[in-house]
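Whether sequence alone determines local backbone shape is best considered at the level of individual chains. When preparing material for the folding task, we compiled for one chain both its residues and its backbone structure tokens. The sequence in question and its structure tokens are set out directly beneath this paragraph.
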Amino acid sequence: MNLLIRGAHILNPDSPFHNSIKDIFIEAGVIRQIGDNLSVENAELIDAKGCYVSVGWFDMRANFQDPGLEHKEDLESGSQAAMAAGFTDVVLLPNAQPVVDSKNAVAYYQKWSKYSLVDLHPMAAVSLKAEGKELTEMIDLHSAGAKAFSDGVKPIWHTDIMLKSLQYLQKFDGLLINKPEDELLTAFGHMNEGEVSTVMGLKGMPSIAESLMIQRDLELLEYAGGKVHFSLISSKDSVALIREAKAKGLKVTCDVGVNYLKFIDADAQFYDTNFKVNPPYRTEQDRLALVEGVLDGTIDVIVSDHYPHDEECKKLEFDLADFGTNNLQGFLPVLIDVFGDDFEKVVDRFTSKPREILGVTLPEIEEGADACLTVFSKDRTWQFNKQTNLSKSLASPLMNQELKGAVLAVTNKGQVFKTNNEA
């Protein structure tokens, strides 16, 4: 397919066209021309005047529940929602059924990804069945194409497993990703421990459960070497610990879920299970520290943390509902809301930074380069509802709202996906 993107503001610091307004002509999946007032025939047009184009967005943490729980999400619906959200690449957690702890499991995603616009990058489990007891065959999984190693939604609770993983992964410069949580401190908890949880009469999950695990892992990292990535940090103490570790020269990176930059524990005060997530939304002080951490570079990556569920798992009493929500299509609107005029300063947190951490080649906006692009508007509004939602899950704190910030289209591997916002 030939495509002409007309009058887009290019956001790509590595490109000579950065911050310029240009037409981009794409032929057979390759950027053929970048210039002013291009005249081409037999090309589909995207009118991007007043809009932006960047390299394709990269989501470093999502769960498509496939295989095993396809009634909640599958690779098709998850990929559709990802494209509508602006993502050309998605890293999938290993917590499928079965867990991604074998070469065949890795191959399942690679086979799908081969023909899809969205590149799916499987994350392999650190431990068999993600139980934290016995290491997987990491070298074989890496050779098969696993981009990183993590037990996903489960923390690596066993200290010796964490230590051995750090040592083992150094053989091939592998990346260890851990969701920091001491489950003995969060057991039976449903939201952040604090004033709001007390008023609501719900058992809380203290932020110290997160910071203690970060302290443990940083000590192990300093002792064993290697590199570690903390996923879904949620507290001001976590930001401070990671900032200090980076200053010491430790090879540590981290990410934050996009919704943690917007919501706090008080948003759940009416027992809306669309605010039940793990780690929980914390206080306004924590939220502000996370925003500051993104702006000052302490937090390297912003992820969707897409963890979809069906109504049977969410339309329940708060203490019975599952953790997790549908977070893909609200990604851009939340960032526009939180960062406003500073939005352009954080685009690298979901374009170049995750690719750099994972060793994935960064696309280019250059003539002759493969076209891996996201076209979006910071100003257009749209309704997020059952009709526009492309995920199987309706469990989103943004559902049935008018949102500002719209993706128009994505292109990758010679394919184009246009949203209803392209008008």
Q: What stands out?
A: The domain at 3-53+365-384+402-418 is CATH 2.30.40.10 (Urease, subunit C; domain 1). The longest helix spans residues 208-224.
